[in-house]
Every structure is written in C-alpha cells, then in structure tokens.
Specification:
Helix content is 33%, strand content 21%. It has 468 residues and is an alpha/beta fold. Helix 2 packs parallel to helix 4 and helix 10 crosses helix 15. It binds adenosine-5'-diphosphate. Adenosine-5'-diphosphate binds next to helix 1, strand 12, strand 13, helix 12 and helix 13.
C-alpha cells in the first residue's frame, strides 16, 4: 500500500466515481483517466480511488488483486470492513474499495441512479479517506470529483486532518452543476459528519431547502480550490439562470473558483491506432475515413449508393441537457435534405427512452437513418470515424468531450454555443476568430426552426466543400 513520490514531484490522489474505460458513464470517466495520465507523464505520482463496482469491465484492469490489509470505516454508528483491491487502468494505479456493508452498495449492476446513492457515496468517501490514513499516505493534493465524492472535503477537515491526515490541499472539480445529490440533512450523520455544525447557510445547507444538505456546496465551501470544466461554464454557473441555486455560493467563493477547459487523451482517442475501427487513418491520410463510412453503413444496413452522401453522427446520453428535441429535429431535417443520420445514445429518463425507442422502430429498416439506444464504446468510436459531421445541440454543456473526439476523428462538430462548446468550437464564418482556429459550425438559439435552417445550411456548406 505504501508508495511515495520523488521529493520534487506531487503526490496526487483522485477520489472519483468513474474511470474510463472500466467504469465510465460519461465524460467524468474520460477526464479522470486523461488527467491522471497527463499528470503522471509530468512526473507526479498519481493514484486513484474508486468503488469496486460489480458492473466494471474487469478485463480492462491489469493485475487486479486483493490486498491482505482490510480497512475498517465508520458508517451509521459502527465500523464496517472494506476489502481493498489494487490494479492498473491505462497505466494508472487504482485502489478499488469493496465494502462489506450489508447494503451491498456497489453490487447493483449500475454505477448510479440507485435510491440510496447519497448513502453509497458518502460511505465510499469516508472509506477512501480511511484507506489513505491507514496506509500512511501523505498526499499533496486530494482531488475529488462531482457530488459523489464531494463529501471528502468536509470529512477531511472535520475528521481526518485532526487525526493526522493533514498533508494535503483539496481540489474539488464539478463536472456538471445539474447533479447536486441533495438529501435530508439528517442523512449526513451516517458518514460521521456533524449535521448541527454543517447544516448552516454558509456551510452545506442547500440554498433552496433548508432541511436539506447539498454535497456540491460542501465541496465548494470546504475545498482549497474549486474548478469546473470550461471558462464559459464557470461564468454561466455564477449567474442565477445557470447556477442551479449555487451561484451565490460560487460568487462568495469566487477567488478560489476557476474554469479550466477539459481536453481529451489523444492516445486513447487516436484514429491511427484505434483497433475498434475497420481501417485506421490519420489527418495525413484520410482515405481510411471513407472506408470506415462504407463499413459502418454496411454493418448497420444503411444505403451505400452514394459515398458523398453526408453522414451525421450523434453520440450522447439522451437527457434534456443534450437538447433531445433538437437532436430529434436534426434527424428529420438531415433526412429531408438527403443526408444520413446515426444516433448512439441511451437515456436514464424513461419517457425519453420510450420516445426514442418509438423513433428507432420507425427507422429500423430505413436506408438513411439508424438509432441505436445503448451504451457501446466500440460502436461510438466507429461512428466518430465514419461520420462527416457530429451534432451536439446541447442546451447547456459544462465542457463536452464529444466535439473534441469528433475533431480528433476528422468529423466536423455542429454545436450549440454554450459552455465548453463555446470554448472549443469556432464557427467557420466567425470573422472575430483567426481563420486557422475555425473548426466547426455553431449556433445559438435552441429553437427548432432556427436550428433547422442551421442544419440545412450546414449540410449545404458541407456538401459544397466536399464537392458533392
Ligand atoms: P457527458 O459527460 O455529459 O455525458 P461528454 O461529452 O463530456 O458528456 O462525454 C461523453 C462521453 O461519453 C464521450 O466519451 C462519449 O463518446 C461517451 N458516450 C456518450 N454516450 C455514449 C454511448 N451511448 N455509447 C458510448 N459512448 C458514449
């Protein structure tokens, strides 16, 4: 359990709920792995702590083994044993915590969306700190992510720093302020936090329901630095419209709050080495892109009659944030304009999932459209490679990685100008941006009719630039 960095380097511990590719729901997983690898390349010692979920992709963890040491952690008035596993994910050392709590917290067949998520992750946050103190680690930075591990910040200062785990400064990154994990204040006591002391307006009390606590607010108040995933989103969440009730908290902690644009791991996302593709290719030789387009059309039973027929891809969680009404509209308009459309996505929201299942059925043998309502990493890569354009009409988007992956795979992003999309995609016609930085198409209104005109002109422009 003991490893120490060389003296000049930093020892960084990430405590998170996701890590790509073994436990990934969305961009958080990509960022934990990508950031970890980037820090590691700079010589820092990076270690990651995750729950040991039953539904992880175990075959992608190298050298997974259980340690002899058992870590006991407090929850609901007593100590619980945790089995600790270690393994390597994409070259990063990871500790997986397997609680022996009767609640079977991470044995649910899914990462999130359980009725007791607050309990599951407050338990995990405490167990992670217990692991650090019992292993005698002296990290320089503890970096926690999103509400699931935001409990680490108050736990650290109120319980673990007094016990001697006090070498670290805390960084909290909020990847999406929509998810705050609020719960009745009394639930905070389970992990050993003092409800009376913390359920106050300047601490963890939710800003709109005073009998509830808000883990994200706790992360903001109790961390040394708070980051979010793009500069534009950092500005948006400091306004009443964008802050989801936390704008006042963010404004009063403005000095330690910063937006830093995410990036993608260009090794993990590399069409020249991506083995999920039919043919590898690079920016210097894009012939392979056409072959992938052909192959994907065949695989999905789409028409291959015209190689120049534009193919629009969309790879997303189908949640209101992603502009589902605009996605639906883009599908119909692309077809009207003679393009092809492939959607890969699934929804945790049952009425959205049902709505898209109906549309998927409608198009199940259509020659120009296919909807695949599932999570599928290999198919996602294939679609990035095969598409001419990727559409991302988000209502709000903290950063967004799909536009960056699309660009890496030579697909032109079509995005709504919000959050990190505004910081990474620059319209081909925007004279305020130097020409060499213009890399896609952007639009602002979230109104279907305007979007329609936009998609129309985009396809037309694409068609003419591709000589179609
Ligand atoms: P978010 O984190 O809000 O879901 P991001 O754009 O930051 O959005 O990251 C999404 C990540 O999840 C990307 O790596 C994208 O390729 C991946 N992804 C989204 N939906 C699917 C899906 N249905 N199948 C495979 N990968 C998906």
């Amino acid at each position: 359990l003991i490893s120490s960095p060389k003296s000049s380097e930093l020892h960084v511990i990430h405590i998170a709920a996701e890590i790509a590719p073994v436990a990934k729901v969305g961009g958080l997983g990509d960022v934990v792995t990508g950031l970890g690898k980037a820090l590691q390349r700079r010589g820092h010692l990076v270690e990651i702590i995750l729950p040991k979920y039953d539904c992880m992709q175990y075959e992608l963890i190298r050298d997974l083994r259980a340690l002899d040491a058992v870590v006991e952690s407090y929850f609901d008035g007593r100590l619980h044993k945790n089995k600790i596993w270690t393994g390597t994910v994409e070259g990063l050392p990871v500790y997986f915590i397997e609680p022996h709590h009767p609640g079977n917290f991470f044995w649910r067949g899914q990462f999130y969306g359980e009725h007791d998520d607050f309990k599951r992750f407050s338990f995990f946050s405490r167990a992670a700190l217990e692991l650090l103190i019992q292993a005698g680690k002296k990290p320089d930075i503890i970096h926690c992510h999103d509400w699931q591990t935001a409990f680490v910040a108050p736990l650290y200062w109120d319980i673990y720093a007094p016990k001697g785990l006090n070498s670290a400064r805390l960084c909290f990154t909020c990847h999406n302020f929509e998810y705050q994990g609020t719960a009745p204040a009394s639930e905070l006591a389970s992990c050993g936090l003092d409800v009376h002391h913390l359920n106050r307006p300047d601490r963890i009390q939710d800003n709109s329901a005073h009998d509830r606590v808000n883990p994200i607010k706790g992360g903001i108040v109790f961390s040394n630095i708070v980051t979010t995933v793009s500069p534009t989103y950092a500005q948006e969440v400091r306004t009443a419209e964008g802050g989801r009730g936390l704008h006042a908290t963010l404004n009063s902690h403005a000095k330690k709050f910063v937006g830093i644009l995410n990036g993608i791991d260009t090794d993990a996302w590399n069409p020249a080495r991506d083995t999920f593709l039919k043919v590898q290719y690079s920016a210097f030789d894009t012939q392979g892109k056409t072959e992938n387009k052909e192959a994907l059309r065949r695989k999905l039973g789409l028409s291959s009659a015209n190689i120049g027929q534009p193919l629009v891809g969309c790879i997303t969680r189908l949640v209101p944030q992603k502009g589902v009404h605009l996605i639906r509209h883009a599908l119909y308009r692309t077809l009207e304009l003679g393009g092809q459309f492939i959607l890969l996505g699934s929804s945790p929201v049952s009425h959205i999932q049902r709505e898209f299942e109906d549309i998927a059925n409608q198009f199940q043998s259509h020659e120009n459209a296919r909807l695949l309502l599932k999570y599928d990493e290999s198919l996602a890569r294939f679609i990035y490679a095969a598409s001419d354009m990727v559409v991302i009409p988000s209502i709000f988007e903290p950063c967004g990685l799909t536009q960056m992956i699309a660009m890496r795979y030579g697909s032109i992003p079509i995005v709504r100008k919000t959050g990190g999309l505004n910081d990474s995609v620059f319209d081909v016609d925007d004279d305020t941006i130097p020409e060499e930085f213009r890399n896609g198409f952007t639009f602002l209104t979230a109104d279907e009719q305007r979007c329609v005109i936009f998609v129309f002109s985009t396809c037309a422009e694409f068609g003419s630039s591709a000589g179609i």
